[in-house]
Amino acid sequence: MSLTQEMFAIAPAMGKANLSAGQLKLLAGKARWIFRVCEAGFPTVPTIVLTRACWDELQAERGRRDMRLRAHWVACLYKLVDKDGKPPMLVVRTSAASHNGGLMPAKVGIPAPGAPEDSVDPARPLARAIKQAFESYGFSGAGWGASRSDEERARQIVLVQAVAGGEVEQFLTRHATTGALGPAALPGSPLPRLPESVGALVSLLDAKAGRHMACLVSVDKGKVLFLSARPVQASGDADLNAAVDRVHRKVWTPQGAVTRVDPNRLALMLHPRLKSSEGVSPIAMGLGVSPGAASGAIVFNAEDAARLRARGKHCILVVNETGPADIEGMKAATGILTARGGMSSHAGVIARITGKPCVAGVRNLSVDTTEMVARIGDREFRSGDRLTIDGGDGSVYVGTLPLAQPQIGGAIGTLLGWSDSSRTIAVRTNVETVDSAATALSFGAEGIGLARSEHMFFSPERMVALRRMILSEDEDQRSLAINGLVDFQTGDYSALFSAMRGLPVNVRLFDPPLHEFLPRTDEEIEETAASLGLAVRALRLRLERIAEINPMLGHRGVRLAITYPEILQMQMQAVLAGARAASEALNLTIPVEVMVPFVSTATEVSWVRERVFNILNNSGLVRSDRVKFAFGTMIELPRACLRAGDIAGMVDFISFGTNDLTQTTFGISRDDAPTFLAAYQRKGVYERDPFVTIDEKGVGEMIEIAIARGRAANPRLKIGICGEHAGDPASLRFFAGLGVDYVSCSPYRVPVARLTLAQASA
Q1: Nearest CA to 323 among 353, 360, 350?
Q2: Could you give the strand order of the β-sheet that contains 335-338, starting from the edge strand earlier in sequence?
Q3: Among residues 371, 389, 367, which one has the least CA distance to residue 293?
Q4: Model's pTM, two decimal places?
Q5: What is the pLDDT of residues 284-324, one digit of tens each?
Q6: For 328-338, how does the pLDDT look when each residue is reduced to its tens digit (9 = 90+)?
Q7: Rounded to an integer, what distance in angstroms lies between the CA atom of residue 359 and that of residue 378?
Q8: pLDDT digit string, tens, across residues 565-601
Q9: Cα–Cα dist 406/238, whole Å
Q10: Distance of CA 36 to the CA centre of its chain
């Protein structure tokens, strides 16, 4: 495209603009909407466009005393002259792809050049304004200011318009909070008096842009003249309501609405959020690992959290890091704040399951549980002091900030219903409790893809039973301890199967990294010793004997089932008894899936499979059609990915635990990663946190290899994804291309997965 084609009218004073494909690509920001509105026939202020490349060449021509490009530029300026032949006063505007606070405001009331040379002379008003407009793109920040390539810089544009008569008014095309079709007032301003004809402009611009727009018009003697428009940020609720309304108005199809809603914003709509943090600075920043905002009094333990909750008070549980012993406190607290941990840490996982806001990995936070004091930087906080946390961006504030509560209306259900009609991948949930299952079902979960059986032991009395089993010295003691667990588990599974009412439930066999379930503090050790009838010194000796240097790669998962087969026996008995009870109560066949975790070899899978099916066949459930049983394994180790062909012939399904697979592929502890991953991202070493968004080139390739080899060996093999990545939109788009059968995520991420997977299949 020649430079003469990079200066052209998008809204000529007379006639229509006929743009080439190359010229259309130049229309960034306001220019795009000016052209579209004029093209549709709505009265629009005369406007021309020129690129920086054109402007630079016009200046170069001045030095060469050349006038060929200048002649074309003057001809363009005449496109602003109406049929009366009188040159109008002019306006110069920037027009960037996205808003940038450093861009020059519109320069209004510029006289038309008196001679051709005045149109390019930087000492004259028009040329000076154009020069300043292009110079303003040099500011850093969003929009054109972030451009780095010479080509992008050359394609930056400036608008020259005729000055419009009458009163200039501004309004929104849709209400910024409700999404109702406007005209609507800008926040904090009254709605100007506008003629009825502005309604046609609002409908036109809303249909063309498909976004909330701030619209600038001139009103003169009851007539409206369009000047410009730019997109504006609206609440997630407003965007969602607007999308559904456009379908009802037949502007979009249902599928069109599904593809245009941002899944990331959908997640925020399910939680409280800060109304505004304007004028308030955070005292600390961590990782936002579970969305939503919360305010409350500081507590340091589960007992205080439960006490405040019983009194109807909000509280923030503040700890160095959470473990299984903290689960009741996490449930009772309004929000969770930890000094250590990351996206896939215990705090992050449990917070997302329970829907609690959580900020983790706050490096300048330390908690002294003995003194009951938290230190954030050089400030001290004690029980009862108030904090506000934002689990979206990881900010921590002193005091109580106002929160906006979620208002989930019919629009979200309508949109998700449309999304389900095009989605081909099932969405399950990761839960272990009836309450969490009910939440997930309300969000449209189609089953449970991961029930972490060890998470069923987080209450104090159950923790005692589990610790007794772990700390048992011999098989007889362990068998005695296990007998106390069977009743707990049978009731749990029966309730869970009943709650899911015939939807599949995938039970992961015990996978407790032992360090997470053992007492740590002196107080916990003394309490555990008393509950087990042991001397404190004897308990400490046992703890020393079973301590592991690297427990995340230690005695866990399938290794526990093989070394302690009585645990496997107990679990299978409890699962099958729970399924029988639920089947009899509901008069339904119960789909039960049992998954072996942390396998690395086919022989491990074979060993467990043989014993599982012996127990199943002896139960009589299969013959009675009470249970539809499936056996599979969780793929979390690189070796298992590479040998998936060996494993696939022995299982009905494989499900990728992407948290541990990321950890073991990278060789990075997911709990310790936050200490250096932020620096890696800041310095460009890693583009993204691999524990948040799947690493497609490494971990992703491992998954691809495993799926290909697994299905080659077993064409009927079902494939699932059950790591935290299954709730991340970018990761979900990658998984959708792998041919998986289902994904499983935390309850509050189920709507996000439903929408994202529908978009991926569109």
Answers
A1: 350
A2: 284-285, 395-398, 386-390, 293-299, 315-319, 335-338, 358-360, 287-290
A3: 389
A4: 0.81
A5: 999 998 888 999 999 998 888 888 887 778 999 999 988 87
A6: 788 889 999 99
A7: 19
A8: 888 888 899 999 999 999 999 999 999 999 999 999 9
A9: 12
A10: 33
Q: Which residue has the tokens 């510029």?
A: 110
Given a contact cutoff of 8 angstroms between Cβ atoms, the answer to whether 748 and 373 are in contact is no
pLDDT digits (tens, 9 = 90+) for 357-383: 999 999 899 999 888 999 999 899 999
In whole angstroms, how far apart are CA 331 and each of 190, 309, 325? 44, 10, 12
- Catalytic, out of 54, 641, 722, 745: 722
555 is catalytic: no
CA distance 292 to 358: 8
Give residue for tokens 């020129």.
Answer: 50
Q: Which two tokens stand for residue 228?
A: 């410009």
Give the pLDDT band (50/70/90) at residue 141. Answer: very low
Residue type, 404: A
Instruction: List the binding residues.
Output: 452, 508, 636, 657-660
d(CA 369, CA 360): 17
Name all domains of the chain by residue range, CATH numbers in brackets: 3-139+152-162 (3.30.1490.20), 273-404 (3.50.30.10)
Known binding positions for Mg(2+):
636, 660
Let me know: does 428 contact 449? Beta carbons within 8 Å: yes
- 193-206: average pLDDT: 94
Tell me how far apart the 2 most distant CA atoms of the chain are, in Å: 104
Would you list the DSSP string of 99-159?
A: --TTSPPPEEEEPPPSSGGGGT-TTSHHHHHHHHHHHHTTSSSSGGGG--SHHHHHT-EEE
Which band of pLDDT confidence, cut at 50, 70 and 90, is reported for residue 142? very low
Phi then psi for residue 382, to 5 deg, are -120, 170
**Does the annotation count 248 as an active-site position?**
no
Rg for the chain, CA atoms, rounded? 32
Catalytic position from the list 212, 346, 515, 725: 346
Q: Provide the 8-state DSSP code for 44.
A: B
With a cut of 80, say whether residue 195 has pLDDT above it.
Answer: yes
Using the 8-state DSSP alphabet, how is residue 86 labeled? P
Torsion (CA) 564, 620, 456, 604 in degrees, nearest 10: 40
Q: Are 669 and 552 in contact (CB under 8 A)?
A: yes
As annotated, the binding site for substrate includes 452, 508, 636, 657-660
- Please tell me the least confidently modeled range out of 120-124, 347-351, 403-407, 604-608: 403-407
Pairing relationship of beta strands 213-220 and 223-231 according to DSSP bridges:
antiparallel
Rounded to whole angstroms, the Cα distance separating 735 from 712 reads 19
Given a cut of 80, is residue 229 above it in pLDDT? Answer: yes
